[in-house]
Amino acid sequence: MAELSAQVNSSLCDLKGINHSFILPNGNPITVLKDINLTIYRDEIVALLGPSGCGKSTLLRILAGLISPTTGQVLYHGIPLKGVNPGVSIVFQNFALYPWMTVLENVEVVLKAKGLPRGEIKRLADKAIRMVGLAGYEEAYPRELSGGMKQRVGIARALVVEPEILCMDEPFSQVDALTAETLRAEVLDIWSCVEKNPTTVFMVSHDIKEVVYMADRIVIMGTNPGSVRSILRNTLSRPRNSRSQEFLNFVDRIHRIITSAIIPDVEIQAPVTPLKVSPETMILEPLPDVSVNEIIGLLEVLDAHQGEEDIFHLAIEIHKEFGHLINIAKAAELLDLVDTPKQKIILTKLGKRFVDSDTATRKRLWKEQLCTLNIYKRILDMLRRDPKGRLERDYIEGELVLHLPQEDPVKMFNVLTGWARYGELFAYSEDTGYITLE
Amino acid sequence: MTEIFHEIGSDKPAVHKPTRFSWIDFLLVLCIAGLFYGFISVKKEWTDVLRPVVEIDLSPWALPKYTFFSLVRGIIAYCLSLLFTLIYGYWAAKDRVAEKVLMPLLDILQSIPVLGFLPGLVLTLVGLFPRSNVGLELAAIVMIFTGQVWNMTFSFHHSLRALPADMRQVARIFRFNWWQTLRWVEIPYAAIGLIWNSMMSMAGGWFFLMICESFVLGSQDFRLPGVGSYMSVAVNEGNFPAMVYAITAMVVMIVFLDLFLWRPVVAWSQKFKIEETGMQIVASSFFLNWLRKARLLQYISGMSSFIIGSWFHYLFSRKRVYSERGGKIRLPFRIFLYIIYAIFISFFGFGCWKLYHLLQALSISGWRQIFWHGCLTLFRVLSAVAIGTLWALPAGLAVGLSPRLSRILQPVVQIVASFPAPMLYTLIVILLQTIGVSLNFGSIVLMLLGTQWYILFNVIAGAMSVPSDLMEVSGLYEMNLWQRLKNLYIPAVFPFLVTGWITAAGGAWNASIVAEYVVFRGYTLTARGLGAMISQAAEKADFALLAGTVLTMSAFVVVFNRIVWRSLYNIAQKKYSL
């Protein structure tokens, strides 16, 4: 590790002041990435860690030159990047193999594009296919292969052009757990050969253990908008043992950082609004993008665990992506059904009562809790004041954009009506596009 | 499954297992020799001095030659369609500005009935080649082309736009140039849709074969030797045996194309399938299996793909049309595009100006009459679609829901549907006359003849895509037939049905030109309608009336498409898509 730190000062790629936003269909801009500054050095593995929707895949594509950022610059060997980054190749989450080409053709085609002579293409492709253990499968089509095998082809294709930087976008999330473990070790093997490319691996993941196992530096990202929360140096010696105490301690440390970044212990509910405040100036709560069933499911699971559980254990137990589980917990907390001190989720008294009730009572409690939220107060108020007792979808989405400019109004609207439907608070008809009181 | 894989796997020329020259190779050589002779006679036909009127020999022995002439026209027109599709579709998909003009333009062009293009084209092209048949031949080919091209272009454009983002990103990150992206990624992705639409197009091209090959403009007779003109002469003379010969020749040609062109191509195209969904019919072709065994062909295809490949590589690899950054089009190429726009716009403007002058000859009452006749034809079109739905919906469901039936019947239906219905019109009109139905209503039957297949096809496809778990659910709850229809089958096939309606209505509008105006043994039967008006205008060479009626018909089609079909389509997409 000491030698590694010595080499670290030679930078390969610099991301400078990257901001990225795009325009929603309704014309409002949404910021995906904000103020990202990141340097990627030679001979290291950098991992971006963050919940889904924090823009990590977008950042990877900006580094690769597939997307040009709204503002900011990507430097490659100190020179501003124009177009596709010549030193990068990508391993895609969904493999992105061409289904009409055999394994061999999928690998050869990228060499053909470089205009290499026929014999050279054959030799390099053969070597790459053997390296990832696919010898004998050259003539197979992707549809005949399992997820793990497909990703091996993806890796062979990425490596055959000998990229300086190997970008991997959640490479093992579509692969079964055992195969994923093998593939991680193999990628490390290939990378550790110093004389050969790739010198650097840049990966995106939401799996904390994977990141601790692979990376030298871990970039933790936060959402809304995506930004760098902190960068950790991982000095565990290789090969790493994912069952060793140091390893688990490090995983735990990252857990704590993420929890404090995503669910601060301070109350996130909007301050109780005094009565004189008019509804127009109320602060509306952004509703996390989760369904009613997911929230109830969380409560049921917590109940089965005597009303208390560590959030990370829970994520593993119920096979939910960690970032999404946090969203569910946030939603439940918003409704006062759970409490989230540190990394724990605890069922509140109300939550316990909710779980123990029958459907009718659950719906009643749900409705009462919704009525405590400003966003529902606001809509109910508008509904009552409307002469026809109805509101148009577009109008509500417009309001949402106004009050919650960082949120996607379409998603938000769906969550809003989804929750309201369960509580029978108001009804929404897709055909007419109107919200009406029940 | 293994069957498919085996087939796909054996697609590459097998290097390891040596194949001997076989009798298949010998047959191929014979075929090539035959084709060679055929093309010589085509060439002779084309470059022959333009005759005032071509005499059509009604003896059955002349038919093979005529059929071959028609086939060559159809195939050349198809090649043109493919070329047009690739260029136009690619341009519209890559150039966002052009797309806004090109796609609506395509929609309008598609709605213009073939007779709208015909007179102008014939006169221009005959004028260009005054001393040989080339002009007239080209005109006929372009006519057939206008019956083929549009849906292919729509399909290709749609595929280009629907290409998954990561497949495109692979092409960019590994620096494929635009030609490589087109050849290795975009065309393979579009292949299946393009091939299906090609089959439809070929059938659509034959529809107006009779008109294209025996076109009369005022006193001038622009007739070409072919199976279409053979039929029209037979009809004019009331020669029933000759009519039967012509119909037989047409059927033979269609079956021949199906067996030796489309079936092999479809079987080969299986390898471009993205994923397997719903019920699948394993496409196989004995002809393709033969060809794969023939060594001569492997040699030829290997050589040609090598030559074409390296030539194109040489041509395109260095010149990048798109600049590196953000896929923007490079400046020189953009200037070139602007010039094309300019030519396009001035051409269009000139056309509008000419048209305006032409239309000034029409009076207000003339317009009123055209509009009224349009309404009559609209009524017929809708009736034809309704009647077609009445029988094709249950039949399509029955066929599509039974794997056995669909395996047997689908190829048969395909061939029947490719047969150009106008060839049967005379026979049916005679039948209708004997039972006392006037052409005013009889023309509905004629329209139905050509367009019901589109509804049937789509319903079959829809029924085949009903997920089996939904069928199991309805079985579990012991729903009776009516409940199943109401709750499952009709909602499930509705989006497909709408697509079928749109295509069928388009076809019926086009068919009205021949269905409302039938010539038999020298005398003419007409129905009151826009189609008959167009035919009459063309016959009398009344260009003002022709322009007015054609314009009105496209307006009817486009407006009806936009208002009724489009909204039905949206409902289908939103509510019933599975």
Broad structural category of chain B: mainly alpha
> Number of helical segments of chain A?
16
Which stretches of chain B are low in confidence, meaning pLDDT under 50 for 5 or more residues running? 1-19, 276-281, 318-327
Number of helices of chain B: 22
Based on CA inertia axes, which overall geometry of chain B fits?
A: globular
What is the radius of gyration of chain B?
Answer: 25 Å
What average pLDDT do the residues of chain B reach? 79
Largest sheet of chain B: 2 strands, antiparallel
Structure in words:
The complex is a heterodimer of chains A (438) and B (578). In chain A, 42% of the residues lie in helices and 20% in strands. Chain A is an alpha/beta fold and 438 residues long. In chain A, the strands form four sheets. Chain A has a six-stranded mixed β-sheet with strand order 6-7-8-3-9-10, sandwiched between helices. In chain A, strands 2-1-4-5 form a four-stranded antiparallel β-sheet, with helices on one face. A three-stranded antiparallel β-sheet of chain A has the order 11-13-12. In chain A, α9 crosses α11. Chain B has 578 residues and is mainly alpha-helical. Chain B contains 22 helices and four strands. Chain B starts with a helix and ends with a helix. In chain B, strands 1-2 form a two-stranded antiparallel ribbon. Chain B has a two-stranded antiparallel sheet with strand order 3-4. The longest helix of chain B has 38 residues. Chains A and B meet through β6 and α3 of A and α1, α7 and α8 of B.
